[in-house]
Amino acid sequence: MLTLSAKTLTTAASAIFEAAGTPSDIAGFVADSLVGSNLAGHDSHGVIQIPAYVDQIRDGILAPAARPEVAREGSAVIQVDGAWGFGQYAASTCMDLVIEKARRNQMAMVTITRVNHVGRLGQWAEQAASAGVVGMLGVSWGAGPYAATPFGGAGRVLSTNPIAFGIPLADGKRFVLDFATTAVAEGKLRVARAKGSPVPDGWIVDAAGRPTNDVEAFYTGGGMLQTFGGHKGFALSMAIELLSIALTAADAAPDDRQRKNGGFFLAIDPTAIRSLDAFTAEAAELCSRVTGVPAAPGFDGVLLPGEPEERTRQQRLANGIELAESTWEAIQDTARTVGAAIPT
Of 2, 94, 101, 104, which alpha carbon lies 20 to 30 A from 300's? Predict the structure, then answer.
């Protein structure tokens, strides 16, 4: 394992994306977002994605200079065309739009189609909570590549279909829920593969639907991710896909590549019901009731969603970010292919 600073990784990522044809402002934003995922402890959504993104640029899947555009706007709903640009930049734009509209209309929704990988959903949930609104979002790859099997089946027909909530609390704190509806995000399999490690029980099954810990069964053997919690995770996964694809009209978006990716962003302004201070104080009180119970054996206590990420962020800012050597080598190889000069 290697340990690198956030600054080194951000500089490298930004240089690579710029060399691949990305405007400097978008390149810097995406670099910050990827490294931010590493800082939060979600390495699956961090700089390990750089080689894949550059491959997508080369293959015409990702348009590096594209910017999202408002396709249609109503009183409480905005439809956005992601133009197949960087998903992180598009997701942040969507959250900005839905926050602004919710402040005017109490509640609002923004949908997006023709969108690439948006990165860690928790970042956009944090964006909502930091702005003093309740945020909810979900995304789906409606036409694949699929990664997961439905409960009771043995076939890749679902994406990881993640969901996130961001809720402001008192004193600037945030409740941030962010998880895939599969047992784990696919990127975590990629991290395990880079380390040469087996994966825990319950993450994947082989092509016949039998449990396995061999990550290669997923990548080369036709294996599949499982939904978390059996039928419950499967049901939530389907709900996210129905909202992300059918409701957004991602299936009808003009696209000669036959992709239909989509997502939704919801925001509620608490001041439509009570003052923000009253809401966040009561929300904090509810959280305190939960975190105040004695620790169970083997635990240090109860952590709220979002607290593990904040702890990891502070630790990694101080001590650096650990990367598998193979991941850093792949990033360096990618830099060479686009002619980018990065730290060695």
Answer: 2
CB proximity list for 97: less than 8 A, separation 6 or greater: 70, 78, 80, 110, 265
- Which residue in 199, 170, 197 sits closest to 284, CA to CA? 170
Partnered with residue 158 across adjacent β-strands are: 148
Residues 89-132 pLDDT 10s = 999 999 999 999 999 999 999 999 999 999 999 999 999 999 99
* Domains of the chain in sequence order: 1-65+305-344 (1.10.1530.10), 66-182+227-291 (3.30.1370.60)
**Cα gap 324→310, rounded to integer Å:** 22
Residues whose CB is less than 8 angstroms from the CB of residue 291 and which lie 6 or more positions away in sequence, other chains included: 301, 302, 303, 304
Q: What is the pLDDT of residues 199-249, one digit of tens each?
A: 999 999 999 999 999 999 999 999 999 999 999 999 999 999 999 999 999
Amino acid at 156: R
With b meaning 16 or more CB within 10 Å and e meaning fewer, what string describes 156-190? Answer: bebbbbbbbbbbbbbeebbbbbbbbbbbbbbbbbb
Q: Write the single-letter amino acid at 247.
A: L
* In the block, residue with structure tokens 């800082």: 39
